[in-house]
Amino acid sequence: MSFRIAWFVTLGLLLATAYPASAWKPTDSTGTFPVEADLVHVKGRKAIPKKTDGKVIAGPLDRLSPADRRYLATLNDSPTNEPVRPTPQSKNQTTIGPIVAARSDRHYNPRTYHDEYDDTTSCENGIWRIRPTKIGIIWFDFYHAEERKWYVNKNNLNLMTLVEDSTEWQNTELDHVQPSVEIISEGGVELHLRYHFDFPNKAKIWTDMLMQKGSPDLRFEVHQKADSKRIIGFQWHVTFGQAEAVSQLHFGRESIYAGKLPQSFPGSRLEVQLVRWYRNQRKLDFKFSGRETTKRDPNNPSWMTRVLGLEQHVTWGKPMRPQDHFAFEARDQPWQPDWKVPQTTPWIEGLWFIRNGPFLDGDQLTYGITNLKDYLRKENRKLTPHR
């Protein structure tokens, strides 16, 4: 299957890990030097395609579009003890940081690395890789030890604030609020990062994130800064969208199945669709998952990989007050206007945890998965994850 790819071309034969030709159709970041070829190898910072005339060529990954580099990251299976540090990028390019796997299943101490494009600090522990971005999304990538590769963008976290004398909520994603990252502690079995958010509405908060060696759980805790405008509303948004195509959600006495929701949903692209609201929940532990697939949905963007069937859970740390809400959104159309409708519909798009009224300093959210053992290599599945 041929594709059009544009980059600087370097002739040469390289020893590399081989991959089967696929229907992936990459684009480059500049639109120059088009070459028709099939992907046959990926080595380090280069992709090695074979042209339609049979010649083997090589070109730097940095010349590929961001979406195509994210896709190549899911193919990389080279074990190493240290992450690959991103090479300097031009301002219109991006990097997802280290694209190599942890050594076997030996979960290592959490560590940080610098993302050149987003000019930020990201981190990983061989289970999760957490990446803040310029557009305000904090992405979660997951490492599949059995397949020895990373699956990118499997979940993300956004935050929202409402300040006094305003009726307009502001969202870290929609308002492109990129956090500055402070390393509180690093070098042992636990990594402590602090994300500083300054919203256009003058709300100022910091969110602490704790990541541990061998643990599939991540804990977040939010605080209001002393010089912040008074915050009268705060929301945690945990969004997984089509990437995990969540089909069931369980909390308290509620069990929600996407396929049993009334059809068809209200709203359309660029609009919120089916939302259900809940109050006065006592048990704030939410479990959700999608059905594992063997291959990616061809209607989804190229960077969106197959559904892994992660058994995810979120625990909301402090009790709900009478004015607080929990909500979920279900969709049968993508939010983005240029995306195709996926083959698996409908799906649960994300969860909203909403604090109304005075800011609840020290509010917590814990996110993780309960079926980590399903993704370990067979000889190591008897391991019990550290919690």
Structural notes for this entry:
This protein is mainly beta. It has two domains: 3-68, no CATH class; 101-380, Beta-galactosidase, Chain A, domain 5. Helix content is 4%, strand content 41%. The strands form three sheets. Strands 7, 8, 9, 10, 11, 12, 17, 20, 23 and 24 form a ten-stranded antiparallel beta sheet that branches. It has a nine-stranded antiparallel beta sheet with strand order 13-14-15-16-25-22-21-18-19. It is globular. The N and C termini lie far apart (45 Å).
Report a brief summary of the structure.
The protein is built from 2 helices and 25 strands. It has 387 residues and is mainly beta.
Helix count? 2
Query: What is the helix content?
Result: under 10%
Overall SS class: mainly beta
- Gyration radius (Cα, Å) is 21 Å
Distance between the termini: 45 Å
Please describe the topology of this protein.
Blueprint: E1 3-6, E2 10-11, E3 17-18, E4 34-43, E5 46-51, E6 57-60, H1 66-75, E7 111-115, E8 120-124, E9 128-132, E10 138-144, E11 149-163, E12 170-171, E13 180-185, E14 190-198, E15 204-212, E16 218-224, E17 231-239, H2 241-244, E18 246-251, E19 254-257, E20 274-278, E21 285-290, E22 312-316, E23 325-331, E24 347-356, E25 363-369
Antiparallel strand pairs: 1-4, 2-6, 3-4, 4-5, 5-6, 7-8, 8-9, 9-10, 10-11, 11-12, 11-17, 13-14, 14-15, 15-16, 16-25, 17-24, 18-19, 18-21, 20-23, 21-22, 22-25, 23-24
